[in-house]
Design brief:
The relative contact order is 0.12. The N and C termini lie far apart (46 Å). Helix content is 82%, strand content 2%. A hairpin with an 8-residue loop joins β1 and β2. The protein has a two-stranded antiparallel ribbon. With 255 residues, it is mainly α. The chain has helices spanning 2-13, 15-43, 52-70, 88-98, 100-118, 125-147, 151-185, 189-199, 206-254; strands spanning 73-74, 83-84. The protein is built from nine helices and two strands, in the order αααββαααααα.
Amino acid sequence: MGNISKLLQDVKDHAEFVGICLLIVVGFVLVAYLFERAARARRGGTERILATRKVVMIGMFSAISGILYIFDFSLPIAPDFYKLDFSELPAMIAGFAFGPVAGVLVEFIKELVKLVLKGTTTAFVGDLANFIIGCMLVLPASIVYQFKKSRKTAVIGCVIGTMIMTVFGTWFNAVYLLPAFSNLFGMPLDNILAMGSELNPRVTDITSFVIFMVAPINIIKGVGISVLTMLIYKKVSPIIKYGRTMQEGSSARRM
């Protein structure tokens, strides 16, 4: 209860920023919805984008993703406040199995799970960043796969998603996240850059910081999640497809 009370107080204290976060989430869901409708129209699919069983599966994948989000860890190539986690893995699997909308919703609900369990230490700035950067991987990959479901397009989607996440994440850190964290914690930006210089002498300014610190983490994360998705999705897809077939058969009998 203590975590929830503190979370509600944080929401109240940062209501304007939370409102902006929710608008951004709605924007991502809308983009995912439009691309998913286009992909379904091309394939001639008739299943609802948010069928009952799909909603249940989104909840399950979100819970798993939220738990994975908690078990983050640092890498020696960047300062300790940069954490690596594999919470995008369930979102990628959901995006491949059920479409981009499912992937984005798993990313969003994952953030809610994490906030309930751990709260926020960044006034929601880090949570928003994790959502946006995660969607930059999951959304392009699942969109590409939905237009033509094959192993080849799955690989292409993962490569495109990793590239977009890396480029956007690097740029986003430089223009927004690092200045925002500097203001939030009252730490001069030069001190943050100095932390990077201690690990890598090539870090001399914010541009070199994000290139040598942030980009490698995003690449490692994107490649790792992509490989795990390709390995795991092949094993779980028969179960997902079987459940979908059972649901479609039940619907047909009711008709």
